[in-house]
Write a structure and sequence with these properties.
- There is one protein chain.
- With 50 residues, the protein is mainly α.
- It is built from 2 helices and no strands.
Length: 50
């Protein structure tokens, strides 16, 4: 593969990335996500929807 053939692939990967800045740690995001799941489950249970 030549350098010119590899260039579009590299630039396409850079452009296709979405999302916010990378902080490296996903621990807080996971904890908040599971907390949200538990809160919604408690809310649904209190309303008697399940």
């Amino acid at each position: 593969m030549t350098a010119t053939a590899a260039a579009p692939t590299t630039s396409a990967r850079r452009r296709s990335r979405t999302g916010g800045p990378e902080d490296g740690s996903k621990l807080l995001e996971n904890v908040l996500g599971w907390t949200l799941v538990v809160v919604i489950a408690m809310f649904v249970t209190q309303l008697g929807l399940m």
